[in-house]
From TrEMBL:
GO terms for molecular function: ATP binding; peptidase activity. GO terms for biological process: proteolysis. Pfam families: ABC_tran. Its EC number is 3.6.3.-. Residues 5-236 form the ABC transporter domain. This is Bicarbonate transport ATP-binding protein CmpC. Keywords: ATP-binding, Hydrolase, Nucleotide-binding, Protease, Transport. It comes from Nonomuraea coxensis DSM 45129. InterPro entries: AAA+_ATPase, ABC_transporter-like_ATP-bd, ABC_transporter_ATP-bind, P-loop_NTPase. Signal peptide: none annotated.
Length: 256
């Protein structure tokens, strides 16, 4: 079956004083339809660059990035992008923030309203639909940003450390909520995180990257059942996989 997203021999350099800096070196990765893939690796290994290329916001230097087998030519409503900073419009309510992305799709007003309500309900913010962002906690703001991405109905969610700024408890709650939505709506998810526990808890597979140059170091299967519960989180198998990921991230041999 055609992968949902493919990185084929993708390299990317950025110009620096004194020569080019190779940020990504020959990355090959296929992400299947409806798969949940997390990406971890040391700071600067190119995680965000890789995701930005899948989003169509950054062009690959060489190689191909394919979506359903066709080259990515730029951003599109088939991919929802969520960053660590909530990026909400402060003067718009939760509902208006969520509806905003739908305006660009030229949907009729009642369809926009319906889609926004559904997305707001999915993230558990219905009681706050008419609230302004400044009155929301960090976790609620991030849920609003997630609802905005959901509302457009993308087949792919590209999430760059979406829970990075949140406290540990809110983070765990949003992980569960994300998995709950994913298991019902089954979008393809590519999710960057610095948190090894989070990477294992969420994913079908964890991609471990290495730095200098940025590249894929290992891909580790997470053969744990869904739904991921506290029991799963506390299981010996979870610890074993977590330790394996941890070891691959923090004990990488330097590049040849
Ligand atoms: N626009 C740019 N111009 C020059 N260098 C860049 C640019 N974007 C990224 N880089 C460099 O490319 C490398 C990879 O950056 P990237 O942000 O993708 O890494 P990362 O793994 O997401 O890092 P972190 O975990 O710290 O967020 C870094 O060394 C960075 O300095």
């Amino acid at each position: 079956m055609t992968p949902k997203i493919s990185f084929r021999n993708v390299s990317k350099s950025f110009p620096l004083k004194g020569g080019d800096f190779l940020a990504l070196d020959r990355v090959d990765l296929d992400i299947a339809d409806r798969e949940f893939v997390t990406v971890v690796g040391p700071s600067g290994c190119g995680k965000s660059t890789l995701m930005s290329m899948a989003a169509g916001l950054t062009e690959p230097g060489t190689g191909d990035i394919l979506l359903d087998g066709a080259p990515v030519a730029g951003p599109g409503p088939d991919r929802g992008v969520i960053f660590q900073q909530y990026a909400l419009f402060p003067w718009l309510t939760v509902r208006k923030n969520v509806e905003f992305g739908l305006k660009l799709m030229n949907l009729p007003q009642d369809e926009r309203r319906k889609r926004a309500e559904h997305a707001i309900e999915l993230v558990g913010l219905s009681d706050f639909a008419d609230a302004l962002p400044k009155t929301l906690s960090g976790g609620m703001k991030q849920r609003c940003a997630i609802a905005r991405a959901y509302a457009v109905g993308p087949q792919v969610l590209l999430m760059d450390e979406p829970f990075g700024a949140l406290d540990a408890l809110t983070r765990v709650q949003l992980q569960d909520q994300l998995l709950d939505t994913w298991s019902r709506e089954r979008r393809t998810v590519m999710f960057i995180t610095h948190d090894v526990d989070e990477a294992v808890y969420l994913a079908n597979r964890v991609v471990v990257m290495a730095a200098r140059p940025g590249r894929i170091h290992r891909v580790i299967d997470v053969d744990l059942p869904y739904p991921r519960t506290e029991e799963v989180r506390l299981s010996p198998e979870f610890s074993r996989i977590r330790n394996e990921v941890w070891h691959s991230v923090y004990h990488q041999a330097p590049a040849a």
